[in-house]
Specification:
Structural class: alpha/beta
Radius of gyration: 18 Å
Distance between the termini: 33 Å
Order of helices and strands: EEEHEEHEHHHEHEHEEHH
Strand order of the largest sheet: 6-7-8-3-9-10
Bound molecules: adenosine-5'-triphosphate
CATH class of the largest domain: Alpha Beta
Number of strands: 10
CATH superfamily of the largest domain: P-loop containing nucleotide triphosphate hydrolases
Length: 258
């Protein structure tokens, strides 16, 4: 059976003003969980904003759900199928968690008859059902992040874009989060997860891309990335070492793979 990419970028060039951050990038996101690794400033958030249809490509083509997205009308149609958790997401401090997630469901055009049940399901999925009435301004960093994840998954999007979703989560919550995204993927959601926490990629992703200077310099399974490890030191994981190899930051000083 042929599986089509959920999202495809062809010859993407993207940037800010005259500054190019991503140039001539080809990338396909398949069903399952895909990890996106890359150093600060590599262009991960820029890529997410493009996939979320917030920033139209400066040049190149974006296809989502097997259809080109070339104008605002097409973007609006696909946006309701995309859940996006930005790195820094905005909210009204006086909203309760329920208000916040309901509001995001409304923005994503979840049918009104489904909004209440979808909100309850999303809050239960992130372990916030018993905190549903708490005000957003009263939440700890980790709880705020979980509220953001609930807002991204409400209404079961087809494509879930999570930009550093595990920042601030305690270890138990990170384990729960990994299980959550694996179960969402089993249920048919394609997940793209950007993170600096390499172990999240090893534990939860089917595929991993490494982005550096706006270019994909490695794609494969986490296992394949780990196999690129050139040397290990006590406490380092092979996946971290493989990632460093790809970035050319491995020690001792050998040639860069990227
Ligand atoms: N709104 C903006 N205006 C101008 N430049 C920007 C803007 N947003 C990002 N940039 C620049 O684009 C480059 C890529 O930024 P981006 O946020 O996409 O990287 P990133 O890989 O997500 O980084 P990090 O891991 O630090 O979040 C950086 O040099 C950044 O300074």
């Amino acid at each position: 059976m042929t599986t089509y990419p959920v999202a495809r970028l062809t010859a993407l060039t993207q940037g800010y003003g005259g500054r190019r951050i991503i140039e001539n990038l080809d990338l396909a996101i398949q069903p399952g969980v895909t990890g996106l690794l890359g150093p600060n400033g590599a262009g991960k958030t820029t890529l997410f904003r493009t996939l979320a249809t917030i920033a139209p490509p400066q040049s190149g083509q974006l296809e989502l759900f097997e259809r080109p997205v070339t104008n605002e009308r097409q973007a609006r149609r696909v946006r309701r199928r995309i859940g996006y958790l930005p790195q820094d997401f905005g909210y009204y401090p006086a909203f309760s968690i329920t208000d916040f997630v309901r509001y995001c469901a409304w923005l994503r055009e979840v049918p009104s008859r489904k909004v209440d049940s979808a909100t309850r399901e999303a809050l239960a999925a992130v372990g916030l059902a018993d905190r549903a009435r708490d005000r957003m301004k009263s939440l700890s960093g980790g709880m705020l992040r979980r509220a953001g994840i609930a807002a991204a998954i409400v209404g079961s999007p087809s494509l879930l874009l999570l930009d550093e979703p595990t920042v601030g989560l305690d270890p138990a919550q990170r384990l729960d989060f990994r299980e959550l995204i694996r179960s969402l993927a089993r249920a048919g959601t394609a997940v793209l997860l950007s993170t600096h926490l390499v172990e999240d990629v090893g534990a939860a992703c089917d595929t991993v891309f490494v982005l550096s200077n706006g270019q994909v310099c490695h794609s494969g399974t986490p296992q394949q990335l780990a196999e690129l490890a050139l040397s290990t030191a006590p406490g380092d994981s092979p996946l971290e070492r493989g990632y460093m190899t790809v970035l050319g930051n491995h020690r001792p000083n050998e040639g860069a793979a990227c």
